[in-house]
Amino acid sequence: MKFNFYALKLSGIMIFIFLLQMIPGFTEFFLLNSGSWTQVWRFVTSIFLHGGIAHLFYNLFALALFGSILERIVGGKKFLITFFVSGILANIVSVNFYSSSLGASGAIFGIIGALIFVRPLIPVWAFGLPMPIFVAGILWAAGDVIGIFVPSNIANIAHLSGMAFGLILGAMFRDWKKKKKSRLSIDENEVRRWEDNWM
C-alpha cells in the first residue's frame, strides 16, 4: 500500500490558506455561517480556516499525527474520505448551533473516531498520561459534552459530531477489511481434495 503523506499535504494547504487569511475579507467569505445553506462551498472551505496561530498549530499537530497513522492503516483513499466526509457532515450539524465557525476540528475528530474503531488499543499521550486511544476518545468526548454547557469559543458539537461520523466510517472500513479477508481465505479441506485428485 503506497503512503502518500496526505495528512502532511493537507497541513501544508492549511498553512498556505492561513497566510491568505491575512487578506481583509478572505476569512469572512469562506467561514461557516448561517448563509452556508445558499453558499455551500463554506461547508468545505471552513475546514481549512483557523482563528489564530495556536488554533492552527494544535490542529496541524493532531492532523499530522493521527492522520498519518490512519492513512498507514486504511490507505490514502479512505483517509481522505474520512477527513472530508467527517469535516463536511460535522459542519452541516454545527451550522445549526453556531452563528459562525471555522477550523479542521470536526474532520480531525472524525479521523480519531475512525482510529478508535480500527485500532482501539493504539497508545496515545493524553492528559499527561499514556493510554489507549479509545480511552482518550471517551475522555475527549466527555470534555466536549461538558463544554456544550460552558460558554467558550470551541465548537464542541462539531467535535462530537465529527467523532461520531468517524466511528461510523471506521466501522465500515473494519467490516470491509474482514469481508476482503474472508474472500481470500482458503478452505484446507478443499486443498486436500484437490491434491488427492490431481497430485
Any descriptors?
single chain, 199 residues, mainly alpha, Rhomboid-like fold, 9 helices, globular
Structural summary, described in words:
It is a single chain. The protein is mostly helical. It has helices at residues 6-20, 26-30, 42-45, 53-74, 76-94, 105-118, 133-148, 156-184, 188-198, and strands at residues 32-33, 100-101, 123-126, 129-132. The relative contact order is 0.12. The radius of gyration is 20 Å and the shape is globular. The protein has a two-stranded antiparallel ribbon. Strands 3-4 form a two-stranded antiparallel sheet. It has a single domain (6-182), classed as Rhomboid-like fold (Up-down Bundle). Helix 5 packs antiparallel against helix 8, helix 6 (105-118) packs parallel to helix 8 and helix 7 runs antiparallel to helix 8 (156-184). The two termini are 36 Å apart. It is 68% helix and 6% strand. The model is unreliable at 181-186 (pLDDT under 50). The protein has 9 helices and 4 strands; from the N terminus they run H-H-E-H-H-H-E-H-E-E-H-H-H.
> Percent helix among the residues?
55-70%
Give the count of helical stretches: 9
Query: What name does the CATH topology carry?
Result: Rhomboid-like fold
Please, how many domains?
A: 1
Q: Which blocks of ≥5 consecutive residues have pLDDT under 50? A: 181-186
Mean of all residue-level pLDDT scores: 89
Largest sheet: 2 strands, antiparallel
CATH superfamily: Rhomboid-like
Strand order of the largest sheet: 1-2
CATH class, anyone? Mainly Alpha
Query: What is the tally of beta strands?
Result: 4
Radius of gyration over alpha carbons? 20 Å
- Global morphology: globular
Termini gap? 36 Å
Going by CATH, the architecture would be Up-down Bundle
Strand content: 5-15%
The chain-level structural class is: mainly alpha
**What order do the SSEs take from the amino end to the carboxyl end, as H and E?**
HHEHHHEHEEHHH
